């Protein structure tokens, strides 16, 4: 069976690639099982050197890789380049810090008695991934898993399979043995088939619906299962800020970058009364200034949406909001031309019961709501099933942190939004999932700690 790859910018087929089946998956799994002990036997430094060659290959091939990424997910070519460069920065951080966090940790160093923790790899891990940032979310798992001595079966999304194949090609070119990294091509049924196999850990990035299904299926295996899901990320602009134009520019980018298809896109905005009108005006001005169109065209900020199904969700959110009394500031409908396009849409006078403020939009749409005070803002920010990130704009760090401690999210931002750091854990709460990638926690997530009690003349 073959998988058709469609260019979302024009609806045309760009490739047909071979899909996996149960037999090919099981062959790949057996290969990875065989390769694991040899890979584990290498030092972290040997593995790090190979991964850094992969990092350099990404840089060398960036133009071709960006072109392929844009052709299958529809993001502007410059945003594809940005993603690859962002992935390189993450790889550098992970490679620079893997030695430190994977080394044996001595907890007690007494004469005649030593106690240490060794971080052993999990074994053969399965990574089922999303399409919106295939380099970034792929690397969050693949790189620390390999550095820690695991072998990896990587299932890219069916919407970013060409990029998945490029990642595999460059990892092998860098020197990762073929039985250390394998790829599974196909749709959800191929992901589901992986759940029937005996992996030593499952790492998933995607939607709540699939994540919940995977968690349930993996539970009886009693192996680690880490789940990174969507968000409905709130942003609150308080009354003490003044530079509303620049705040509007920065936060509009946080909502609309990558056409709003980021797990940490700003999805809801609350503005304290005094600043509401001026903020909405500056925000809408910024949104109207962007160029939308073919993602390969120079200067385009909003390209095509990756999945055609998302357009109906956005149309429904607009309809629901208008029926419940929202004001359409701009946009509001699909753009009628081949490919998946939707006008950048701003809704003001929204209320929290509207779909646009409750369900993950994952598209170029935002609702902006007026709030009275911090207490109301905190209540509304928490009024969601999700808990990925939350952001507060204020002149006071103290005020922002006091608000953020009361918001149940894995990440808190003061005067910034829609950003990820390799040095900090990336983790969700509630329906945004659990576990962590990135940071020391995201390196050790791919290990199992072993406790050593060393009585006698112990040595490091
Ligand atoms: P999705 O759940 O539709 O698919 C994700 C992956 O799961 C794909 O590879 C798909 O083929 C596979 N899959 C589908 N059904 C399956 C099944 N029954 N069993 C096993 N695998 C199955 O999600 P998506 O549309 O690819 O990604 C978008 C979602 O991902 C959004 O909700 C977004 O917020 C979230 N996301 C989260 C993060 C994060 O770090 N928290 C990062 C990126 C994206």
UniProtKB/TrEMBL annotation:
Residues 3-451 form the Aldehyde dehydrogenase domain. InterPro entries: Ald_DH/histidinol_DH, Ald_DH_C, Ald_DH_CS_GLU, Ald_DH_N, Aldehyde_DH_dom. It comes from the Bacteria. The active site is at residue 228. It holds the Pfam family Aldedh. Keywords: Oxidoreductase. The keyword Oxidoreductase applies. The keyword Transmembrane does not apply. Belongs to the aldehyde dehydrogenase family. PANTHER family: ALDEHYDE DEHYDROGENASE-RELATED. This is Aldehyde dehydrogenase family protein. It comes from Flavobacterium gawalongense.
């Amino acid at each position: 069976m073959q998988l058709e790859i469609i260019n979302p910018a024009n609806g045309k087929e760009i490739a047909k690639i071979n899909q996996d089946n149960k037999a090919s998956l099981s062959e790949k799994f057996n290969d990875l099982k065989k390769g694991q002990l040899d890979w584990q036997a290498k030092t972290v430094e040997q593995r790090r050197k190979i991964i850094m060659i992969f990092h350099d290959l990404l840089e060398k091939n960036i133009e071709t890789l960006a072109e392929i990424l844009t052709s299958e997910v529809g993001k502007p070519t410059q945003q594809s380049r940005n993603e690859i460069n962002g992935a390189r920065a993450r790889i550098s951080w992970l490679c620079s810090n893997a030695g430190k966090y994977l080394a044996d940790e001595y907890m007690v160093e007494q004469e005649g008695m030593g106690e240490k923790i060794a971080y052993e790899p999990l074994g053969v891990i399965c990574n089922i991934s999303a399409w919106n940032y295939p380099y970034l979310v792929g690397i969050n798992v693949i790189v620390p898993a390999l550095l820690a001595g695991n072998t990896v079966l990587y299932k890219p999304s069916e919407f970013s399979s060409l990029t998945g194949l490029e990642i595999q090609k460059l990892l092998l070119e860098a020197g990762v043995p073929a039985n250390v990294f394998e790829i599974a091509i196909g749709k959800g049924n191929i992901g589901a088939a992986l759940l029937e196999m005996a992996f030593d850990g499952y790492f998933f990035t995607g939607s709540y619906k699939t994540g919940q299904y995977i968690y349930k299926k993996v539970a009886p295996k009693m192996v680690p299962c880490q789940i990174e899901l969507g968000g409905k990320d709130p942003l609150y602009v308080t009354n003490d800020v003044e530079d509303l134009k620049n705040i509007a520019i920065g936060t509009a980018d946080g909502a609309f970058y990558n056409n709003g298809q980021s797990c940490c896109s700003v999805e809801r905005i609350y503005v304290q009364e005094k600043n509401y009108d001026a903020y909405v005006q500056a925000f809408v001005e910024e949104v109207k200034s962007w160029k939308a169109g073919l993602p390969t065209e120079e200067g385009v900020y909003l390209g095509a949406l990756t999945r055609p199904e998302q357009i109906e969700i956005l149309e429904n959110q607009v309809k629901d909001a208008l029926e419940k009394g929202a004001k359409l500031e701009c946009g509001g409908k699909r753009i009628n031309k081949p490919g998946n396009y939707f006008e950048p849409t701003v809704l003001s006078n929204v209320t929290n019961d509207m779909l646009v403020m409750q369900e993950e939009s994952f598209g170029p749409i935002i609702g902006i709501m007026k709030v009275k005070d911090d207490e109301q803002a905190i209540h509304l920010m928490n009024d969601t099933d999700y808990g990925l990130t939350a952001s507060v704009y204020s002149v006071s760090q103290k005020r922002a942190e006091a608000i953020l401690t009361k918001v149940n999210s894995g990440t808190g931002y003061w005067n910034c939004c829609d950003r990820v750091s390799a040095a900090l854990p990336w983790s969700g709460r509630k329906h945004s999932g659990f576990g962590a990638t990135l940071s020391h926690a995201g390196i050790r997530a791919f290990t199992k700690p072993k406790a050593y009690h060393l009585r006698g003349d112990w040595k490091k």
